[in-house]
Automatic annotation (TrEMBL):
Keywords: Signal. It comes from Glomerella acutata. This is Uncharacterized protein. Residues 1-20 form the signal peptide.
Length: 101
């Protein structure tokens, strides 16, 4: 029983590895009702806001990607999640797409 508890605790503490952080070209904030939060997205966006429609819902999405020869600057999803919450979004996560490899 003790080994099972330790194993479960270890798995929980390492879950961030599975989720991981990555860089994306587009992100937006969500509220806990599942709807995009345009105000929070506007606050956190270092780039351009663009309109996007998914499943009949039109919302603002932040687009940011700069390429500097062999380096690039993009939106990091873990940072965006924290910034969305700080800007007032109530959702548990943000939404990002177009991963930069």
């Amino acid at each position: 029983m003790k080994a099972t508890t330790i194993f479960a605790a270890t798995l929980a503490s390492l879950s961030w590895i599975v989720q991981g952080c990555a860089n994306y070209k587009f992100c937006h904030c969500y509220d806990d009702n599942g709807m995009p939060n345009d105000l929070a997205t506007n606050i956190i966006c270092p780039g351009n806001l663009e309109s996007r429609t998914e499943f009949g819902v039109t919302f603002k999405e932040c687009h940011y990607y700069k390429n500097y020869f062999f380096l690039y600057s993009a939106l990091e999803n873990c940072d965006i999640r924290r910034r969305c919450k700080a800007a007032g979004a109530t959702g548990a996560d943000s939404s990002c797409r177009d991963k930069v490899e």
